[in-house]
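Milestone M4 deliverable, item 7.
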Amino acid sequence: MSKSKIIRQQIWSKLRDVARPDTRFHLNFAEVIPDFDGSETATDHLVQMAAYQTTQFAFITPDNCLVDLRRRMIVAGKPFVMSTYGIYRGFLLMEPGMVPAGAELYAAWLDGMEHFGRPITLEEIARRGRFDFMVTGASAVSKDGVRFGKGHGFFDLEWGMFTDLGLVDDSTPVAAVVHDCQVVQETLIPSETDILVDWIATPSGLHEVPRRAKRPSGVKWPLLDARPVDDTRPGQE
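Output delivered:
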C-alpha cells in the first residue's frame, strides 16, 4: 500500500468521529469529502483572508465541507466556478442574480448548484479570465501543504486543464478547508502531481504554508486514473 493510501486510511478513521454523513455516500470517504463539525468556523477564518475578500473570480470544488463557503459567496455576490461531482457534467458558473434571496443555502448544496447555476465550458471560462482564488476540500493535507483527495485525481486533472488554459499558475492562491484531524503533522515530499496549498483553514484557525516547491503544470495524463479522465466531459473534449 502506498504512503498516500496509508495516510488516507489513518485520517479517515479519525474523520468518522467528526464527519457529517453525506445523503448519498454516508461515510464512504473514498467517494465523498464530507462536511464536518466546525466547518463553519473554519470558513470564518478563510473569509478573513485578503485573497478571499478581493477575489473577483474563484474556483471552488464540490466538496461538502465548502457548502458554507459557497453560501457566503452567493450572498456576497462573488462569482465562482464549481466542478460537478466527478466532473461528469463539466463545470457550473454561479454569479450575482442567479439565486433569489433566501435560497442561498439550498443553492450552495450540489443539487442547488445544478438548479441555480448554469453549465459553463472551459472555452467560456478561459474567455472570462484567470481564477484569482481557489478553494478545495481534502481527505488530508500535510502541515507543509501537500494535499490528498479521495484518490481519484479529479483536482489534479482540473488543475492541469486550468494551467494549460492559463487560468492558474504557481502564483494562484490555493486554500484547503479541513478539520484539524485531517492535518498530517509529518513533512511529506510532494509528487509531480501534488497541488501544494498556501493556506489550511481548520476550526482552530488559519494556517499559512510557506511554499517550498513549484506546483505542476499541465495534465499528467499517464499518472491519472483512466476512468475519471475517460468519463468526465472535459476529458472527452
